[in-house]
Write a structure and sequence with these properties.
By secondary structure, this protein is mostly helical. Helices cover about 80% and strands about 0% of the residues.
Length: about 450
C-alpha cells in the first residue's frame, strides 16, 4: 500500500489506532475505578504494579515497533512477499521473549518489588495482581504482532475492532471477578489481574479469526508457514533492540518515579495514580498519531519520497495537537467531576493544581511524541535510544532531587514531565534537520 502524506491519509491511518487506544486505556481506568471501591490499598497498589507490568509489556511492544517499521518499508518498496516472513519471524521472537518475561514475573518479582515498595500491604496486593496478570503476556505479545502487521500495511481499522472487544470483555470480567458476581468468588485485586488475562485471550481468538478470513493478506504470504530467517532476525534485532531499550527505559523511569512518589505516602500515590491514568487517557490521540507517523515515514522512504517526510511529520503533529486540545477542554471545564471518578472529595482539592499543570504537559507531549516517532520511522533508532536515556535521566534526577533533598511538593515532581518532553523533542528535531537519516539502511 502506497501511503500518502496528506491530512486525510494521516487521519485515516491514525483514527482506528486512537479508537483502539481509547479502549485499551479504558481497561486501566476500569481497574482503578473498580478497585477504588475495594479499598485504598488495592487502589494504590494497582497504580504502581500496573506500571511494573507495563514495563514488561513495553518490551514486546518495542520489538513489534521494529517489525512495524520493517513491514512498512517493504510495503512502500512493494516487496509484499517479504512481509509474511517478517511477520512470522516477529511472532517467533515475541513468543520467546514472552516466555522469558513470564518466568521473570512469576519467580523474580517477589525480590524485585521488595526493593521498591515500602508498604507491606501494597506489596502483598501487588504480588497477588502480578501472579494472575503475568499469564496475559503471551496474548498481549501476539496482539502486538497483529498490530505491527496491520499498521505496517496501513490497514488499522481491524486494530480498533479487536481492542474494543478487549475492552468490553475486560469490563464485564472485572465486574464479575473483582466483586464476585454471577456465582464467582470475590477476588479483589487478583480478580482484576485475572480478568485482564481472560480478556486478552478472548481478543486473541477474535484476532486469529480475522486473520484466517482476511483474503487481502494473501498477497503478503501470511497464509503460509515461514521458517526462521537469519537476515530478517538481524534486521529485527537492529531496529527493535534500541526501541525496546527506549520503552524499557521510559517505562522503567515511570516505575522509579512512582516508587519515589510511594515513599511520600499513600495519599501522594493515590493522587498520582489518578493523574497517571488521566495523563494516559488524554494522551491517546497523540500516541495514535505517533504510531501512524512511524509507518507513514517508513513507507514514504520505501517509496523513495524522502522529501515528503517533513510534510508528514508536520501535518501529523498539527493533527495531534488539535485533537489533544479538543480532548483537554473537558478536563479544563469539568476537573472536579472527572477527578471524582478516581478520588475522594478530600483529595480533589489537592489534585486540581497539578491537574491544570498536567494539561500543559499533555499538550507539549502531543507534538513532542510525534516528532520523536517520526525520527524512529526513519530507522534512526540508536540515536532515539540516546535521546531517551538523556531525557529519562534528566527528569528522574530532577524528581529525585525535588523529593529527597529539597523536600518539595508533589506538583514539583510532576513538573519533571515538561523537562522530559522538551529533552525528547529538541534533539529529535535537530537530527531530522541534519538529513543524516537519509543514508540509513533498513
Amino acid at each position: 500500500m502506497q501511503i500518502r502524506a496528506s491530512y486525510k491519509a494521516i487521519w485515516q491511518m491514525a483514527y482506528p489506532i486512537i479508537v483502539g487506544s481509547f479502549a485499551q486505556n479504558f481497561i486501566g481506568v476500569t481497574d482503578i475505578i473498580f478497585l477504588g471501591y475495594v479499598g485504598q490499598v488495592e487502589f494504590a497498589a494497582v497504580g504502581i504494579i500496573s506500571i511494573y507490568y507495563l514495563v514488561m509489556v513495553m518490551i514486546g511492544f518495542g520489538i513489534s515497533r521494529g517489525g512495524q517499521i520493517l513491514i512498512a518499508r517493504r510495503d512502500g518498496e512493494k516487496k509484499y512477499k517479504e512481509i509474511g516472513s517478517i511477520t512470522y519471524n516477529l511472532l517467533y521472537v515475541e513468543m520467546l521473549v514472552a516466555l522469558i518475561l513470564f518466568l521473570f514475573l512469576q519467580f523474580l518479582s517477589p525480590y524485585v518489588l521488595w526493593l521498591f515498595i515500602h508498604s507491606v500491604d501494597i506489596y502483598d496486593a501487588s504480588m497477588e495482581y502480578i501472579f494472575y496478570r503475568s499469564f496475559g503476556l503471551f496474548f498481549s505479545f501476539f496482539g502486538f504482532v497483529l498490530m505491527a502487521l496491520y499498521t505496517g500495511i496501513g490497514r488499522t481499522k481491524i486494530i480498533a475492532l479487536i481492542t474494543t472487544v478487549l475492552f468490553v470483555s475486560n469490563v464485564c470480567l472485572n465486574y464479575t471477578l473483582i466483586f464476585g458476581k454471577f456465582g464467582m468468588p470475590a477476588m479483589g485485586i487478583g480478580g482484576a489481574g485475572l480478568a485482564s488475562t481472560f480478556a486478552e485471550i478472548i481478543s486473541t481468538i477474535i484476532g486469529m479469526f480475522f486473520i484466517l478470513r482476511d483474503k487481502q493478506l494473501l498477497q503478503y504470504g501470511v497464509d503460509k508457514f515461514h521458517k526462521l530467517e537469519v537476515g530478517i532476525l538481524q534486521s529485527l534485532a537492529n531496529l527493535s533492540t534500541p526501541v525496546v531499550f527506549q520503552y524499557f527505559i521510559s517505562m522503567g523511569g515511570w516505575f522509579l518515579l512512582f516508587s519515589l512518589i510511594e515513599s511520600m505516602g499513600q495519599k501522594a500515590l493515590a493522587i498520582s495514580t489518578a493523574l497517571r491514568h488521566l495523563y494516559s487517557f488524554y494522551s491517546i490521540p497523540a500516541w495514535g498519531f505517533a504510531s501512524a507517523v512511524n509507518s507513514i515515514v517508513s513507507n514514504l522512504i520505501g517509496q523513495n519520497q524522502s522529501d515528503k517526510v517533513f510534510t508528514a511529520i508536520n501535518r501529523t503533529a498539527v493533527l495531534s495537537f488539535i485533537l489533544t486540545v479538543l480532548a483537554c477542554v473537558t478536563l479544563a471545564i469539568f476537573p472536579e467531576t472527572i477527578l471524582s471518578v478516581f478520588l475522594d472529595k478530600s483529595l480533589i482539592k489537592e489534585t486540581k493544581p497539578i491537574l491544570f499543570m498536567l494539561i500543559g504537559i499533555i499538550m507539549v507531549g502531543s507534538v513532542a511524541v510525534v516528532i520523536f516517532n517520526g525520527l524512529i520511522g526513519t530507522g534512526a533508532v540508536r540515536f532515539g535510544l540516546a535521546v531517551q536515556i538523556f531525557s529519562v535521566a534528566l527528569y528522574l534526577t530532577y524528581a529525585f532531587t525535588s523529593v529527597k533533598y529539597m523536600e518539595l511538593e508533589l506538583s514539583n515532581v510532576w513538573s519533571s514531565e515538561f523537562l522530559y518532553w522538551v529533552a525528547m523533542a529538541l534533539p529529535a528535531w535537530a537530527y531530522l534537520q541534519s538529513d543524516r537519516w537519509r543514508n540509513l539502511d533498513v
